[in-house]
Design a protein that fits this description.
Layout: H1 2-5, E1 10-16, E2 21-23, E3 31-36, E4 44-49, H2 51-69, H3 78-89, E5 91-97, H4 105-109
Antiparallel strand pairs: 1-2, 1-5, 3-4
Length: 111
C-alpha cells in the first residue's frame, strides 16, 4: 500500500475471508472501471467497483475455494489443505489506475 500513497489516481480495496479490509476509498465511493462506447450509441452502463458489492463478491470468491475446487479432493489431501489455506490466508484485491491517459500501474507496482 505504500506504493499507492504517492499516487492519488490509484484506488484499491483488499479484503480477506474474515472481512478485514484495507482500502484508500471511502466506503460510499464508486469506481467506474470499464464502459462500452459504440459509434452512434450512448455510453453503455459501466462496470463499477464499490465497497458494498466487493464485500458480497468476497464471500462468493472465498467460498469457491472449498465449495467448488475443494470438492475435487479428499479433505485429508494436500491439495484440499492448500485450497483451505488459500481461503484462510489470501486477500481478494482490486487495484484501479484512474488516470487512463498518463497512469502506469505496472510502473508503480515495479513490473
Amino acid at each position: 500500500t505504500d506504493e499507492f500513497a504517492s499516487n492519488p489516481t490509484i484506488t484499491y480495496m483488499a479484503v480477506n475471508s474474515k472481512g478485514d479490509i484495507k482500502s484508500n476509498q471511502e466506503f460510499t465511493q464508486v469506481n467506474a472501471v470499464t464502459w462500452g462506447a459504440f459509434p452512434g450509441k450512448e455510453i453503455v452502463q459501466p462496470t463499477v467497483v464499490e465497497p458494498n458489492s466487493f464485500m458480497v463478491w468476497k464471500d462468493e470468491a472465498f467460498q469457491l475455494w472449498v465449495t467448488e475446487w475443494g470438492n475435487l479432493y479428499d479433505e485429508s489431501s494436500d491439495s484440499w489443505k492448500l485450497l483451505k489455506e488459500i481461503q484462510d490466508t489470501w486477500w481478494l484485491v482490486s487495484v484501479v489506475e484512474n488516470d487512463y491517459i498518463a497512469g502506469d500501474l505496472f510502473k508503480v507496482l515495479g513490473v
